[in-house]
Amino acid sequence: MTLFDGVYPFYPQPRKAYAFDVSSIIVIAVFLSLGLSFLLILPGIRGRARLYWLLRVILSLFIGAVIVAVQFTGDWETGQVTANTSYKSFSRTMVNADVGLHIGLGGVNVTLVGNPVNQINETINYNEHFAWRFGVNYNQIYNEGLEKGLPSPILYVAEKFSQQSPCGVYSQYRISGHYASATLWVAFCAWLISNMLFSMPVLVYGGYMILVTGAFMIFSLLSFSTVRNSPMCAIQFGPASLQTVYGASFWLTLATSLLCFLIGVVVVALHHLRPQALKAFFDLSEDEEEGDAMLGEAYGNPHFRASKKNPYDNFALTIEAV
Predict the structure, then answer these.
(1) Which of 124, 136, 228, 254 is deepest in the core (most CB within 10 A)?
(2) 223-241: b or e for each residue (b if 16 or more CB lie within 10 Å)?
């Protein structure tokens, strides 16, 4: 290749910045569709039960959406630094840019945004994903980035998480993310079971299952946080250093797990202290009263008087001689 203003033309076409994760959009769209479908039938519910149904459905869909969506987000751990850095290999051209690191359960995203975006006759706006989920070869993705000629800051950060890196954080992040994802799927199953139990007159068991949901979400956070036990390699851009902190997905998962614990404790407490209020909130009081009316009440004829009869009358046997 030939040089163009001192820069190798690895990208002849304009680069498009990564905007949204498709999987997260699909999850949000599915749960929004469920919520909108419920809003269509909400006017058919009368009285205070309408408000109770709305609150229960919104909280339940929110918990389910968070459990599934955070599986695909890339901001469990994030960091960003602004630095003057080289842009391409074999070139001394320097650019001023924001280098971002976004770590998820299934991989890492490295962003590079110029200040300003248009520098050295190029648009510096990148977001490259390097996956490490089981069944995906991280090193192969990294080598493909080398072949494409990704900017040097992106390759430098991505190399820190490769298997050949002396940092040794690849296995730690990969295994921690795998077990965090697995425990979140268990939490999702517990959330489904809790919704089924809440629709039946066994509300206290639904409260127990929502507590189990919150517990497995906490287990996922503990699994991911184990990466802090191993020291993180220094990511230096001259005098500037890129440091990472827990991101929005981590704190959202923590907040949702605490919400599950709160709901579970309230349900269990109301079951023992005020069971009628709990049944009213879940719209089960009227159903039980109707069931009692059909099964427990009996109507008798006041004019009917039972007479005493010989118990052997019905069993009398007459033998006639032939």
Answers:
(1) 124
(2) bbeebeeeebeebebeeee
- Collect all residues with Cβ–Cβ distance below 8 Å to 201 and sequence separation of at least 6: 279, 284, 287, 288
- Confidence at 94, pLDDT banded by 50, 70, 90: confident
Q: Cα 35 to chain center, whole Å? A: 17
Q: Please give the Cα distance from 233 to 170 (Å, whole number).
A: 11
Write phi, then psi, for 108 (nearest 5 degrees): -130, 140
Complete DSSP assignment for 127-167: EEEEE-STT--HHHHHHHHHHHT--HHHHHHHHTTSTTSTT
Three-state DSSP class for residue 202: coil
pTM listed for this prediction: 0.77
Residue 305 pLDDT exceeds 80: no
Q: Which residues pair with 316 in a beta bridge?
A: none
φ, ψ of residue 103 to 5 degrees: the values are -105, 130
C-beta contacts of 109-113 below 8 A and 24+ residues apart:
109/18, 109/74, 110/153, 110/154, 110/157, 110/158, 111/18, 112/151, 112/153, 112/154, 113/17
pLDDT digits (tens, 9 = 90+) for 4-15: 444 444 444 444
CB count in 10 Å sphere of residue 62: 14
User: To 10 degrees, what angle do helices 49-69 and 170-198 make?
Assistant: 160
- 22: tokens are 């498709």
Any idea what the Cα angle at residue 178 is, between residues 176 and 179, rounded to 5°? 70
Structure tokens at 205: 């068991």
**Cβ neighbours of 305 (radius 10 Å):** 6
Please, are residues 24 and 165 in contact by the beta-carbon 8 Å criterion?
no
Q: How confident is the model at residue 201 (pLDDT cuts 50, 70, 90)?
A: confident
Q: What is the mean pLDDT of the chain?
A: 79
Instruction: Name every residue whose Cβ is closer than 8 Å to that of residue 86 and which is 6 or more positions away in sequence.
Output: 92, 93, 94, 95, 152, 153
- Identify the residue with better confidence: 52 or 186: 186
